[in-house]
Amino acid sequence: MLSMPLETIKEKITAQKGLSADEIDKLIKKKLDSLSGLISQEGAAHIVANELGVKLVDISGSVTIKELVAGLRNVEFAGKIIRKYEVREFSTEKSTGKVGSCLVGDNSGLIRLVFWNEQIEKLDRAKEGDVVRVKGAFVRDNSGRLEVHINTMTSFILNPPDLDPSSFTSQAPKEEGEFTRKKISDLQDQDVNIELLGYVFEVFSPRFFEVCPQCNARMRPTDAGLACSTHGVVEPKYNFVLNLYFDDGSDTIRLVCWREQAKDLLGLTDEAILAFKDDLAAFSEVKQSLLGEMIKISGRAQMNSLFGHLEFIVSSVSREVKADEEIKEAQEEFVEASNKVASAEVPKEKTEPAASRVDATASKDVSGSETAIDFSDIEF
Ligand SMILES: [Zn+2]
């Protein structure tokens, strides 16, 4: 059976038979009852649609990508090749083969086309930006994602003259490792692969803590001394985390830089940073060099449940922000946004100078028990 969302089936029944949503729900309910709950709502809706003579899928002509549903055979659609992926070879116990794929988009959506073995010849002739008309393909569900499988019966017609490439506007989705530039004020809990550009305006001394030299787990005090829950009492080594405050003109946020990111940000080795453990005063020079610095960072936003505000976990950091258009733009936006904040009548906490907010947090920061980060859940 075709897999089609319940709402889509209902819409099609309404469109073709003029029944109200209520009437359709009643028919579906009746069908469900008569089949003693042996089928899903979608299944019942399907049967109702068929009994009413509703054509759920019109496969007599070309459909849009959004209209493709799993189970369709002999489907026809057109789109632009947005990405062409490397052909991969695979081997199982019984056979070896290769599989190729590309991503095709029209203005309704994107879909992956899959080519097995000798079908890859069809893909070989294509390049990104080509328009393609696909006829006689099979749509299947692969772990919740639709794919179109190209077989020997499928025509894969490149750049047919009746299709205008400029009429297809779909864009490729973000790949893993690509980042979305956001403003701090637009960040939400669990936003990942985010890039921020802004200024450092407060830097706290690195915090050091003991970890197990064998498994890097945080060590806990016991009667016998500091111990790893797996390896017992062992001589600890030290790890560190660096917190700073960052402003992009839209808002401010606390950045959390773990060991590697802290090293990148400070441009220092493990040894150099660990030396601050016994000489925190020496850190002030490093701190001064960072204040006011424009940096570009990527990472993810996370709600700090202890303080009830977002913080940003840095995964990579760049101090080498090019003195180009990007920085000029950011500076202009920064000034613009700062002016806006200063002049607008916004709630008091928003107009409060940033520094006082930092001080409040900073005092908590050094008090130990109220640290913003709970190390206990974190693996290093
Ligand atoms: Zn351990």
Molecular structure report:
- This protein is α+β, with helices and mostly antiparallel strands.
- The chain has two domains: 65-167, OB fold (Dihydrolipoamide Acetyltransferase, E2P); 180-377, OB fold (Dihydrolipoamide Acetyltransferase, E2P) (Beta Barrel), CATH 2.40.50.140.
- It contains ten helices and 17 strands.
- A five-stranded mixed β-barrel has the order 1-3-4-6-5. A five-stranded mixed beta barrel has the order 9-14-15-17-16. It has a three-stranded antiparallel beta sheet with strand order 11-12-13, with no helix packed on it.
- Helix 1 (6-17) packs parallel to helix 3 (41-52) and helix 2 (21-34) crosses helix 3.
- The radius of gyration is 29 Å and the shape is elongated.
- The two termini are 48 Å apart.
- Residues 344-380 have low confidence and may be disordered.
- Residues 212, 214-215, 217, 228, 230-231 line the site of zinc ion (ZN).
CATH architecture of the largest domain: Beta Barrel
Strand order of the largest sheet: 1-3-4-6-5
Total of domains = 2
Q: Per DSSP, what share of the residues sits in E-state strands of 2 or more residues? A: 25-35%
Instruction: Report the biggest beta sheet as strand number plus sense, adding barrel if it closes.
Output: 5 strands, mixed, barrel
Q: Which ligands are bound? A: zinc ion
Question: Rough shape?
Answer: elongated
In DSSP terms (H or I, runs of 4 or more residues), the helix count works out at: 10
Task: Summarize the helix and strand pattern as letters.
Answer: HHHEEEEHEEEEEEEEEEEHHHEEHHH
User: Could you name the CATH class of the largest domain?
Assistant: Mainly Beta
- Strand element count: 17
Secondary structure category: alpha+beta
Distance between the termini: 48 Å
Averaged pLDDT: 81
CATH level-four homologous superfamily name of the largest domain? Nucleic acid-binding proteins
**Helix content bin:** 25-40%
Instruction: Evaluate the radius of gyration.
Output: 29 Å
Which blocks of ≥5 consecutive residues have pLDDT under 50? 344-380
